[in-house]
Input
Amino acid sequence: MSTKDVATKLVEYCRQGQFEAAMKDLYSNDIVSVEPDGAPVKEVKGIEDVIKKGEEFNNMVEEFHGMEVSDPVVADNFFSCSMKMDVTFKGAPRSTMEEICLYQVKDGKIVREEFFFTPMPQ
Output
């Protein structure tokens, strides 16, 4: 699968809220996931731990109100997209979370993801 194919499929999964299915289908077993400084977890390696990180994020959420995902921008073995979530985290007011997501593809699988956003105060 080409980088463009992977990017298109990932955006489709995300727009449908099927994050774990996207990980199982499109991520390498050796995926590296990087969050910005100040996020609860800075870096996670391996598909099992990345899926667990996603589950932990979902456990922090009281209610999802909506989500937008941009079309991907593809260059070489990389692609990016923006994501915007309208969410209420447990014990917090409703908020909008926006981020830039950058992905690296090798042999038809995502091998690295990095997210750029301003973390909420812990």
About this structure: Residues 3-15 form the longest helix (13 residues). The chain has one domain: 3-116.
